Amino acid sequence: xxxxxxxxxxxxxxxxxxxxxxxxxxxxxxxxxxxxxxxxxxxxxxxxxxxxxxxxxxxxxxxxxxxxxxxxxxxxxxxxxxxxxxxxxxxxxxxxxxxxxxxxxxxxxxxxxxxxxxxxxxxxxxxxxxxxxxxxxxxxxxxxxxxxxxxxxxxxxxxxxxxxxxxxxxxxxxxxxxxxxxxxxxxxxxxxxxxxxxxxxxxxxxxxxxxxxxxxxxxxxxxxxxxxxxxxxxxxxxx
Length: 239
Known about the structure:
Elements (H helix, E strand, L loop, with lengths): L6 H13 L6 E4 L2 E4 L12 H9 L14 E5 L5 H8 L4 E6 L2 H13 L6 E5 L12 E7 L3 E3 L14 E3 L2 H9 L4 E12 L4 H10 L2 E13 L2 E12 L3
Parallel strand pairs: 3-4, 3-6, 4-5, 6-9, 7-8
Antiparallel strand pairs: 1-2, 9-11, 10-11
């Protein structure tokens, strides 16, 4: 394991971001102001959220991947920035899920702040568990906790869930279930990173009859380190 992919290093980042004395209650990103609750991933301390919005076409610099008026499901919504921006950019129906109850409340607050609560629903859910079995979306998206932690690791706080995934258990479930949640012609997307183990992810996809297609790669600076984010589409191997 390299220092770049070290789960211990990611957990250190989690602890630092959660306990910073200058952690704000609100912040500005993508030309809008956002609420930030405690124990929720803090976008101001990382370029990953802005990069994700650029990749999805939610910053106004290009057409969004989501068709106008379409339905959008974000898994792991955190503060709700991506879900809210999808609504602001024309999504007709948005559902945002998170396993962290503080993140669910944070998403709700930001939906109200930006007056999209009429078409954005925040749901407390472990991936898809709390959704209706037959619910389908034009786009399903997860900006994952891509750093691989040991199988036996147990989370100490909900905040850590945004940083690491023990044994890639959540990734395995997402690979299996996400393509089952899209409409005909819809897309199941996964935002990954070179801090993650792409070979392990690819092996899991193959085991479960899935193929991964790279849609976009973006390199950016985080501190003194250059990172790369990878937007993947998950498809059944028979397609």
